[in-house]
Amino acid sequence: MPTVSMTVNGKLVKADVDPRTLLVQFFRENLRLTGTHVGCDTSQCGACVVHVNGKAVKSCTALALGFDGAEITTIEGLANGTQLHPMQEAFREHHGLQCGFCTPGMIMTAVDIVNRKGNNLEEHTIREELEGNICRCTGYHNIVKAIGAGAKNMGKAGGATQAAE
Amino acid sequence: MYAFTYNRASGLRQATNLLGSLDDPKLLAGGQTLLPTMKQRLASPANIVDLNMIEGIADIELKGRSVVIGAMARHAEVANSPIVQQNIPALAYLAGLIGDPAVRHRGTIGGSVANNDPNADYPAACLGLGATIITTKRKIAADEFFKGLFETALEGDEIITKISFPVAKKAGYYKFRNQASRFALVGVFVAKRPSEIRVAVTGAGGSGVFRVTSFEEALKKRFSPKSLDGLTVPANGLAGDIHGSAEYRAHLIGVCAKRALEAADK
Is residue A163 part of a domain? Predict the structure, then answer.
């Protein structure tokens, strides 16, 4: 089987994989990083969003072999030890979830929105930018609130994003 | 997904050789269509040739009076490129409407154009701006490139390397989205070029993207939404499905064309 190596959450990992292995399967099954979820498996729902070289990507629509040498951050890589990332903290604070299944993808997308659009996000912008993430509980209201607050706190935390990436 | 052999191309020549020598090969660009299709077992290539590690085929530059975009440029890169935004803002706007933010980080212009999905956005821009598709073998005018549903003029061992978009005097795009898939139910791209006027429609054609010559004629007098008053497109030959009948799409073409013209004037 062909070999792939990449840096996941700061750690260099290497494995022999079946070419069919999706990036999300590689995280979940090879690395046992099960925080990245598979919701729809058809690249609609966004539960599988991770950051590849600093950009949000749907890891269910990517072959692991295609990411040789990539720098990847999954939801497990956001917190600083026991200290939650400001976006995670905002989701906790504002109860930006109901069942929690979509939460890892929501948070990874939220951090990506802040990276691209800055710390002061209009509600409308957040809703538009979330179009690739589906919450089956339809708990969007608090998710949007959490992202707005998390974005501001990421600004105050100063460089927290950079450190996590 | 059915089993396949993965091949990583390091250059265009190697990719071309792989296409010529391997059994049942398929190029992988951004993978945002190919991989879901393979997962559903609607495609089952024996060999994948991955283009993602090839350097220098994703540049965006202004060459003379054309914006030239490398085939592996991601939708997000086209949408955010100052060169595209300043010279053909309608093209940057169109790229920003494709899929969702994460899909735009992976999907490529070359992949989209080569796939020629009848509901995709880029074919409308190519045909509407009179673009030239540049491949490893030749240059193909957009008018000659799109051949039908998911069909193009590309040969089996031919790879798109760049797409050259002539800068228009005015251009606009309006997309009426399918609410579930975010693809165009109907999308209309209008452009006023020094030599001609083009109106290209995606999403509605029974055999893919097409031009509306009656609209183009009417717009020669004045490049304005008013010029299209009273004009309609026949439903005959248009696509009809559970998302919208051919008659509905015919109506939307008129509406979208007017809105694209309004956008072109801003």
Answer: no
Longest dimension (CA), chain B: 57
Say if residues B17 and B59 touch (Cβ distance below 8 Å).
no
Verify whether the Cβ–Cβ distance B50 to A65 is below 8 Å: yes
User: Which residue range is the domain that position A12 belongs to?
Assistant: 3-76
Alpha carbon distance A27, A52 (integer Å): 13
Contact A105, A121 (CB under 8 A): no
The model's pLDDT over A111-150, given as tens digits with 9 standing for 90+, comes to 999 999 999 999 999 999 999 999 999 889 999 999 999 9
Classify residue A60 as exposed, middle or buried by CB count within 10 Å of its CB (0-12, 13-18, 19+). buried
H or E segment to which residue A164 belongs:
helix A160-164
- In this predicted complex, what is the ipTM? 0.94
Specify whether B161 is located in the same domain as B227: no
Structure tokens at A60: 């269910």
Q: Least CB-CB distance to A56: which of B39, B40, B101?
A: B101
- Domain range for B254: 170-264
Same domain, A8 and A42: yes
Residues of B with CB under 8 A from a CB of A: 1, 3-6, 8, 28, 31-32, 35-36, 39-40, 48, 50, 52-53, 76, 99-103, 105-106, 182
